[in-house]
Every structure is written in structure tokens, then in C-alpha cells.
Amino acid sequence: MHTVKLLSGIPAVITNLGGKEQRILTEGKQGPTPDKMNRMLLSFVKKLGDVTLSDLKDDEQLKLVSGLLSCDKQKLFIAARAITYESDPNYIFTYDYTDTAGKKRSKEMQMDLTDGVPEFTAKKFDPSLIAGRSISDLRMNWQSIRDTAEDFDCMTVDEAKQAAVMEFDVPIKDDPVITGGRVSICMMGEAGATYMQTVKRSEISSHTLLMARTLRHYVIGSDIPINSRIADIDKMHQLNLEYIRLVLRIFEGKVETVVEFDKPEDDNSLGEGATVQIDLLQELSFFFLSGQM
Fold it and tell me: Which of 54, 152, 219, 271 keeps 20 to 30 A from 38, CA to CA?
């Protein structure tokens, strides 16, 4: 058993990964899905805060792990793999590409994960840290503002979900949609993961991550925020949208599971000097060190 502090502050007790997690990942349609990832969590997470999962009914266990913030789920998977492959932390994977002669090629790539991947603790939302600041000010000083903010110190999943909701005034008051001058948005969590599953790859845009974080806006004369639709976001003032994105950047926790590497010199699929990005948690080989699945 190993104790891991999540990015929301929740202490978790986990075990090494075993064959069960590999089976879950490869059952049916191969590849990680939110459902498979939640089932994996149920397999190796034994305790969250003061709650021992085995003391709960099956549906209660699933509800608990599903409700974790996305950054906490990322932390659990990265930590579990690091513990399991402690003696051999490198990640080796096969990169497939088309060379300059039009031939299909494969190359073994390796990443040293001895020191893990960068992670950023979720921060307590404090509206006083952003009040009255311009977009340029936030853009230039977001890191120092983030450093000033307090870390999450939640002990339960419900506490983390409540703390993840951020409500604040936007700088442009004559916004045609946000007529009440205020918005609400959540750090990425269960609702976001569910929403992302409904979006077709061809329909993903700059609005998608705002929708996934349940962006809501206030209108004049109402104390209840309205769910922002794509058509609403289309009409919002761009400076307000950038302000919202910067607020997320300052306070939201995350684990940098997306990594970048240089493409092979004879890779003809990308422009000259281009790099390749992969999300570790979306790669089956991340959990299969042998490369055989």
C-alpha cells in the first residue's frame, strides 16, 4: 500500500498496478475511455480521505471515484505507474510514421520518467487576487498570482468538487451575453469528462474546454447563472473569454500528461522541425512496458 497526496489535498491509498488493470484497458474496444479509467481506479485505489472504498456498495464506489477532479485522477494514474515500475521508470513506445519516400516506418522512442512529469496543485479560488486586474496584467503575472494563492487542502471528494467552482466578475461589462457582468466555471471534473465523450472529434474547438468546465453566465435581473451554450460563447466578448481562460490557468490543478518529442528526421507527416505530442494516459503502451498487448 502507498499513500499519495492528490492535487486537491485529498490523501489516497493505492496499490501497485496488476494484470487486472491491463485487462480492463484492453477489454472490448481497445484504448482508454472514461469508463475504463474509472474501473481501473476502483481496482487500485483503496482509500480516499477517510473513506475505505471496500466499505461502500459498488455503485457508491463508482460515484466516489467518478467525482474526483480530473487532475486528481491524472495524479493517481501517474503515481500508480511510477510505483509499479519504480525499478524501470522509462517509457518506451513505438512511433509510426511515413518517411520522405512514402514508406511506412516505425521507431522506438524512449522517455525518462525517473523524475515523473510536471504537476500543478489546485489552488483555492480567491477573487481578491484577480479583482480589478486587466487581461495584460493577468497574462504577465499569472504565475506570481498562482504562487500567492493557497493550495487546496480538501479531505473529501465532495469538498474538492465544491472548492472547484469559481465565480467572478468579468472585465468587459457591456458583453452582449454576460449582461450581469459575472460568470461561473468549474475546474475539470466528472461533468467535463462526460461532456467530452459527447463531442465529435471534428467538432472540437476553443469552446470545448470551456463547455467541459460548465461555463455559466449571469444576465441582468437574475441571481441564477445560465448554462452557456456554444452559440452564447460565440457572442461573448473575446477579452472576457481570455480573462476566463487565464483564471483557469491560475487556479486549476493539472498533471502534464501531454509530452512532446522531436519527430524523426525522415518523418514526412509533419512540417520541418515540427514536434509530436502524445497524452501518456491515452497510450495503451504506457501501462504495458513490454510493448506487447
Answer: 152
pTM of the model as a whole: 0.90
- 178 CB-side CA count, 13 A: 25
Question: What are the C-alpha distances in Å from 198 to residues 202, 208, 234?
Answer: 12, 11, 20
Low pLDDT (below 50) residues in the chain = none
pLDDT of res. 21? 92
Smallest CA-to-CA distance from 142 within 161, 123, 160 is with: 123
Burial of residue 228, with CB atoms counted within 10 A of its CB: 0-12 exposed, 13-18 middle, 19 or more buried: buried
What percentage of the chain's residues is helix, strand, coil (to nearest 5)?
40, 20, 40
Alpha helices in 149-285 (DSSP H): 157-163, 190-198, 208-212, 230-235, 238-251
- Output the nine-digit C-alpha cell for 141: 503575472
Q: Kindly report the average pLDDT of the chain as a whole number.
A: 91
How many helices and strands (H and E) does the chain possess?
A: 10, 14
